[in-house]
Amino acid sequence: MARFLHTMVRITDPDKSRAFYEALGFRFERDMDIVRDGAKEATNYFFGIDDQDAVLELTFNHDGRTYDLGTGYGHIAVGVDDLAQTLQELAAQGIDPEREPYRVREGGSLLCFVRDPDGYRIELIDRSGK
Question: Is 29 a catalytic residue?
Answer without folding.
Answer: no
